[in-house]
């Protein structure tokens, strides 16, 4: 099975109004719907801390697209 993992950074979503949150998604080849991990990957009050953690995992920021939810800051792969 071909699988890609993405990490999406959210700006103080409704379920974590005091933090930035990172959610991990699994994308299977042939399935257009990303599968979210049940638990959040990370939360922090500091966006830079989140970015440093994701950089430390050798991930690359691919930004966001205008169609993204307004709470999405960026996505990393």
Structural overview:
The protein is mainly β and 77 residues long. It has one domain (3-76). 13% of the residues lie in helices and 40% in strands. It has one helix spanning 47-56; strands at 3-11, 20-28, 35-36, 42-44, 61-63, 72-76. Strands 1, 2, 3, 4, 5 and 6 form a 6-stranded antiparallel β-sheet that branches. Strand 5 (61-63) and strand 6 (72-76) form a beta hairpin. The two termini are 18 Å apart.
Task: Tell me the layout of helices and strands.
Blueprint: E1 3-11, E2 20-28, E3 35-36, E4 42-44, H1 47-56, E5 61-63, E6 72-76
Antiparallel strand pairs: 1-2, 1-6, 2-3, 2-4, 5-6
Task: Please describe the biggest sheet, giving its number of strands, its sense, and whether it closes into a barrel.
Answer: 6 strands, antiparallel
In quaternary terms, these chains amount to: single chain
Low-confidence stretches at least 5 residues in length (pLDDT < 50)? none
Tell me the series of helices and strands, N- to C-terminal.
Answer: EEEEHEE
Count the beta strands: 6
């Amino acid at each position: 099975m071909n699988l890609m993992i993405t990490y999406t950074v959210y700006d103080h979503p409704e379920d974590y109004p005091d933090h930035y949150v990172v959610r991990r998604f699994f994308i299977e080849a042939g399935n257009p719907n990303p599968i979210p991990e049940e638990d959040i990957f990370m939360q922090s009050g500091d966006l830079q801390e989140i970015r440093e953690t994701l950089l430390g995992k050798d991930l690359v920021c691919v930004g966001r697209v205008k169609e993204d939810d307004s709470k999405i800051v960026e996505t990393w792969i």
